[in-house]
Known about the structure:
Layout: E1 2-7, E2 10-13, E3 18-26, E4 34-39, E5 46-51, E6 58-60, E7 68-73, E8 78-83, E9 92-99, E10 105-108, E11 112-117
Parallel strand pairs: 2-11
Antiparallel strand pairs: 1-3, 3-8, 4-5, 4-9, 5-6, 7-8, 9-10, 9-11
Amino acid sequence: QVHLVESGGGLVQAGGSLRLSCAASGRTFSSNAMGWFRQAPGKEREFAAAISWSGSSTYYADSVKGRFTISRDNAKNTVYLQMNSLKPEDTAVYYCAALSPGGAYDYWGQGTQVTVSS
């Protein structure tokens, strides 16, 4: 089991920045690839970014590429999502997730709300 807790969400004006954090506990965090997903009101949950267990590889949805940066600190069991140049369409609940050995995101946090005002 991996227990995940997100923090860092809030209200920000368009063009502003936020940094989300996801603290992990339980199984060995450093062996899991991690991802950030988001769900806007009335929409399906969508992928935003992912990072390999070592941090050497990162992946982004086209909608956030160039504005968001995912990183991790395995010594602190924490993964981050730096979000810059925020847009109103980035408004969503953001979730972090851990990839299980079976290849599915089996572990999820409770989510943190990000609201971007125009």
